[in-house]
Write a structure and sequence with these properties.
By secondary structure, the protein is α/β, with parallel strands linked by helices. It is built from 17 helices and 21 strands. It has two domains: 282 residues, Alpha-Beta Barrel (nicotinate phosphoribosyltransferase), CATH 3.20.140.10; 182 residues, Aldolase class I (TIM Barrel, Alpha-Beta Barrel), CATH 3.20.20.
Length: 476
């Protein structure tokens, strides 16, 4: 499955591993990210379901092998190795929808080194993109203060998969649906649509356009009322259709959509006129290059709005379009012994945490709120009946001791020895889980600007191991 959708250096390194008889050596790799997009307080993990599908179907097809052969670089025994290659390793990951934070491992791959190396690009592509969009969607949803958000960005998405998988991620983040019909077919996510300005223009007049639409779609009809003039033309014609076409059919539902102009002012005026004409049941939808900041401002300015359609600024996360997830080796296995590995960089942000690790989330037992995350070595066992002291890994004098707390280990097994052992939840359950996860965060972490820094600390054992390796490497 798309095995050549990978960076060349992964195949290049794999060939060297193979020619040096290292293909059976096992290694551990971590996926983590360094910076939260939009200077926010958290990220929502997404893309795991897509990663599972990718790994289950991973193989080099015959035309892939033929293409590599045509390069005149690789030996026939290596090409045969690739043709027979299937994933045989073990993967742990946080479930989709989990809130996650910088530098903590969210996916761990243990596999023969070539297998692990070749997965890097595609896994990062799926994790980075979908986590980015799920996070942006959740920010937009929270800005709406309970009003529904529909994802409307497919036409501005960066290609087909970005539109389809982005809409899926947006649903996980809290959107109620998408404009993309394929997502309803694949994932059961409700697709929504109204009409375009071109549709209205194609009729002799606006009333006839709305009437024809209402006859075809009487239940939940939505009329775009800003093609000519919202208050003087669009709204009067829409009201006429509600009164003359839909109400005689016994239908009292539907909406009007405004896609331009002063959305706060226009929506307020539209609401007054609708209510004055006994059309309180008609909802108002706003669109037009919205994001969490413009939605917050629109609501603050008194907009009368029931739902928003949010497009390009969501599906591309245009204000902060990259999640910088990385894939780094953290350990090798030599003669059955796990050897911690780490990258040491002149840039502290690029120095990794060594070894095979676990991540625990610490919850306050009384409030249920998440307090901090603690990264430990894989063999550490924490006892909830005893006080737990954590410290800042940079400013080590900053400590906090928990006495009334509960722990949750975040990562769960996904694949064991190449076999999937994890049951992927329904998309609706992933969405509910994600929204519950966000609700465990303190309001200070959820702020759009200057959010509180959620602490991710290292256990004393892992902290000491990291410093020991740094001292050893720098003095050898």
């Amino acid at each position: 499955m798309k095995a050549l959708v990978t960076d060349l250096y992964e195949i290049a390194m794999s060939y060297v591993y193979f020619k040096n008889h290292k293909e059976n050596e096992e290694a551990y790799f971590d996926i983590f990210f360094r910076k939260i997009p939009d200077n926010g307080g958290y990220v929502i993990s997404a893309g795991l379901s897509s990663i599972i599908d990718y790994i289950n179907n991973y193989k080099f097809e015959k035309d892939d092998i033929a293409f590599l052969r045509s390069q005149g670089i690789y030996s026939e025994d290596f090409l045969k190795y690739l043709e027979d290659l299937r994933f045989t390793g073990t993967i742990y990951a946080v479930p989709e929808g989990t809130v996650i934070f910088p530098y903590e491992p969210v996916i761990v791959v243990k596999a023969p080194i070539i297998e692990a190396q070749l997965l890097e690009t595609y896994m990062l592509m799926l994790f980075n993109h979908q986590s980015l969009i799920a996070t942006k969607a959740n920010r937009v949803v929270r800005a709406s203060l309970g009003r529904s958000i529909t994802e409307f960005g497919a036409r501005r998405a960066h290609g087909e998969s970005a539109a389809v998988l982005g809409a899926r991620a947006a649903y996980i983040g809290g959107c109620i649906g998408t404009s993309v019909v394929e997502d309803e077919k694949l994932f059961g996510i409700k697709s929504f649509g109204t009409m375009a300005h071109s549709y209205v223009q194609s009729f002799d007049n606006e009333y006839e356009a709305f009437k024809a639409f209402a006859i075809c779609y009487p239940n939940g009809a939505s009329f775009l009322i800003d093609t000519y003039d919202v208050l003087k033309s669009g709204l009067p014609n829409a009201m006429r259709v509600f009164k003359e076409v839909l109400e005689p059919m016994g239908i009292k539902s539907g909406s009007v959509r405004i896609d331009s102009g002063d959305l706060s002012y226009l929506s307020g005026e539209v609401r007054k006129i609708l209510d004055k004409n006994n059309l309180q049941y008609v909802k108002i939808m706003l669109t037009n290059s919205l994001d969490e900041y413009s939605i917050s401002e629109i609501i603050h300015n008194g907009a009368q709005v029931d739902l928003f359609g949010v497009g390009e600024r969501l599906i591309t996360s245009s204000a902060s379009p990259v999640l910088d997830g990385v894939y780094k080796m953290c350990a090798t296995i030599k003669n059955g012994v796990i050897i911690p590995e780490m990258k040491i960089s002149a840039s502290p942000a690029k120095t990794t945490n060594p070894g095979v690790k676990k991540v625990y989330r610490i919850y306050d037992k009384e409030t249920g709120k998440a307090e901090a995350d603690l990264i430990t070595t894989y063999d550490e066992i924490l006892d909830e009946t005893k006080p737990l002291t954590i410290f800042d890994p940079v400013f080590t004098y900053k400590e906090k001791t928990y006495t009334s707390y509960k722990l949750r280990e975040l990562m769960v097994p996904i694949f064991v020895d190449g076999k999937q052992v994890y049951t992927v939840p329904k998309i609706q359950d992933i969405r509910s889980y994600a929204l519950n996860e966000v609700n465990t965060l303190w309001p200070e972490v959820l702020r759009f600007t200057n959010p509180h820094n959620y602490y991710v600390d290292l256990s004393k054992k892992l902290f000491d191991l990291k410093n020991e390796i740094i001292k050893k490497e720098l003095h050898e």
